[in-house]
Write a structure and sequence with these properties.
Layout: H1 9-27, E1 37-44, E2 50-57, H2 62-74, H3 76-87, E3 94-99, H4 102-135
Parallel strand pairs: 2-3
Antiparallel strand pairs: 1-2
Helix pairs in contact: 1-3
Length: 137
């Protein structure tokens, strides 16, 4: 018999928070600073005292990130009261929002790899041309 993975309560709460916050942002929040936000990861501590919420943006410019963080911070009370009803709890974890830059870093890494490949191709093409030129002398 395969062992079943036992999920901690914190994991279940994190999953519910991710879904509920995504729905709230999509349908119930009118703040323009909170448009085009995607909740990427939610991590809840085992004591359920803290929820770290990571988000991404469609347009991840520095000023948009800053505005989104301000908007999320101003909506924390609204989010917590909604989440308290959903998980039927008197105490809801403290919500802390972080911009998730993993996608940005991955894109930058891919750009650097592609640039290196192009540079290598130019270098080797020039090397081969130099070798052919020296062979013909």
């Amino acid at each position: 018999m395969m062992p079943t993975k036992e999920f901690k309560r914190a994991d279940r709460v994190a999953e519910v928070f991710q879904v509920e916050l995504a729905l709230l942002l999509q349908r119930d929040v009118a703040d323009p600073r909170l448009k085009n936000i995607h909740i990427s990861v939610v991590k809840v501590t085992n004591d359920l005292g803290l929820a770290k919420i990571y988000f991404t943006l469609l347009d991840p410019r520095e000023d948009n990130i800053r505005l989104a963080l301000k908007g999320l911070k101003s909506a924390v009370g609204f989010f917590r009261s909604h989440l308290a009803k959903v998980i039927n709890a008197r105490k809801v974890p403290c919500l802390v929002f972080y911009y998730d830059d993993h996608a940005d870093r991955a894109t930058r890494m891919m750009q650097l790899i592609e640039k290196t490949r192009r540079d290598d191709k130019v270098f080797y093409t020039e090397e081969i041309a130099t070798i052919h030129d020296s062979d013909s002398v």
